[in-house]
């Protein structure tokens, strides 16, 4: 080395570093100078010219022995990085290209030794660059992690491609037996590699798989071919040579762990996870993604495995399994004295991961946005979806970034996979220096530890809040229940007499009956054959259930109703865990089922709705909120997921049905609001069903042409009649619909993408058919709505969908009086806004035509009499008598509806206000100003209508599909109907007043 280089820079500038670290830098500098005497590289000269670079190198050497030794032993690495300016830029998108260039000199003849050498040289250059940028704060924590991950991915992908080419030359091309396709290995990255968040010295966790069985052209099975290829890939990266290693490879996350085969087929993988996958493997699979090999096949594999991690219901068993995993980790930490481990110790990295991934596992099956491999991305969704408060997410993000930054510094120090804090004072100062950039003169270990403890306290608190990890904590204390005696009751440790007395003391009105039901459930074959884990879940759940029921007025009745749901999910105990984990949901569940057999049966049929009990609706949502919620939920599914769309629509409808029932039971919602909410829910569903059907048909057939010769818009409208039209939907109402279109009858649709066009009339007929199918098809979750199309022109013999002119012609010339009555409660609810406006104008035109009131009255009265006789004949004196009396009996709801319809048909020609609305209450309010009855009489009708509907809604909650639970209790039914006697008498009197005027 020339003397002028030494004189220009006889030592690295260290004045910006703590004095205690100067000797370390001087020793390293002396070693570099000695090496330069033997093999000049030009590095000292470059440092003499670039003081800023020299200062950075002193800082890097102070923070990393590994980087210092690389600079000394291979100074050309740093020279190349400086000259190429790679130190200044993020280059993760270029690793593949650079590594392929580095391997370009490899021949077609297999040379694994040469491959290993080139890989390690490439890795060392990049690791020096990454540590340099990390220490000098040229990259953020997240950027560094992403760069290391991209480096690992490139090394895997490029190396695998090279080894595959050599293997094919030797053993032949592997070909699938069924499809005949050439096959490639699929490499899944797990853990931090899958998340693109590797540390500076991470292992890489991998799983190998291949698409299907077959053999090579030389007769070697695909299993053997890919086994050898996988072994070669691991060896190429993991083996320690004179040049070190590329990445440590860990294959223990594969099926059956270390005892399993190194590589297996997709079918074998799927079968393993479906039949034998364990909870910790579900957790691990959250981060799995294809990192090398056949990406297209890898995407197929991940699609097949995704249901293993993400269940379609809210899966609170995730908390249980993660809590168990954390307890095992804590035992390991205590046993090995690892309290200073920033990954596994309290408030460490693992706890942040557990918080985020627990919520991913719980909610990710429902909300696919949460199916993220990246922890940072998952945090964003947790904030956006309000699964955690924004300030909690930010606090966890800040703490996680700090912990990961410190982890980088610990690992970059000697290129060792460690998360333990150093013990020596000198190493502590060096780590503190790396963390203190840019204020390195004030590097202080105690100050760093103070900040670390603050972050660990934050993580520990949020972890406890979400996972409930205190090892002395149990479900009972979180439910404020002392359940020792109830546990003894459940475990049959009490005598029959003692068990009965215990329940009686707790307030059970039929303790002997409850005891017998409890024992019958335990004796049932379903419970007896449950696995040990499920029985343990019941052992936690049942005492909590019994104690919670004791807070109700009729706990024995509640127990009988609740057990319907418990029995229905006995083999799916994740639902039991949901209630055990959430005291609020348990109380809500018990309260609603005790109050309503309808709710109890509804939940037993659809236990997936139990998660809706986690929140209590404070006020009913506006229609716009329901529309937005449904639209956003469907958008998350994507356009081509028809089955998922069908299931989501059903879940949306069922969840809001449960919410409104809960609101009615708790008294937070009036009868009018109940019907509004149910109606708005149906409208939101109908709007989205129309949109999905339109999207499907236009993609298949192109756009229909309307009467104006234009295309591209949905000239189709759904007209609601009956309860939907009158904004009076109940819990189990059908949807009475009529479909109209504005298509040109003789014009074909406009073709797109080569699809065959069809007549516009046929297009809209198919549209109507598909809408009916989507609404009425049974799926796993049941059906959306029963659709009744009998009110369309000409009834069941008429066209499924009509044009507006054809509809008008029918109404003007052929419609019966009862059809015009039905028109009163009709309105456009979905589809074309222009057609909706045209329909409303046509409805007003038809309803307001002059009519002979005497003839009209005679028709209305005859129709009412005929309807009552027909329904009475069908109903007889059976169990549906109470609601029949309320609705169809003399002085019931239908009498009021007929009066309202008569008012509109007879008076709207002179009183247009009657045409504004389609619901009975607002029509009656408008009638008060039309003189048909006095204001006082109108108020009596309104009061009667509300009272009758309130009772009808109440009966709906007390009835199940198998009949009223209280069927035998005639006194209870009579008590419910008694207040209606005066109401019905008022209706009868007003009916007579309205129609006696026209009585001949």
Describe this structure in words.
A hairpin with a 2-residue loop joins β13 (959-960) and β14. The strands form 4 sheets. Strands 2, 3, 5, 6 and 7 form a 5-stranded mixed beta sheet that branches. This protein is 61% helix and 5% strand. Residues 1-8, 469-481 and 961-969 have low confidence and may be disordered. α23 (496-505) packs across α24 (511-523), α26 packs across α28 and α26 (532-549) packs across α29 (583-595). The longest helix is centred in the first third of the chain and has 31 residues, at 141-171. The protein starts with a helix and ends with a helix. It has 1000 residues and is mainly α. It folds into 5 domains: 85-309, Beta Polymerase, domain 2; 338-348 and 366-467, Four Helix Bundle (Hemerythrin (Met), subunit A) (Up-down Bundle), CATH 1.20.120; 475-614, Four Helix Bundle (Hemerythrin (Met), subunit A); 623-847, Beta Polymerase, domain 2; 853-996, Up-down Bundle (Four Helix Bundle (Hemerythrin (Met), subunit A)), CATH 1.20.120.330. The chain contains 45 helices and 14 strands. It is elongated and about 125 Å long.
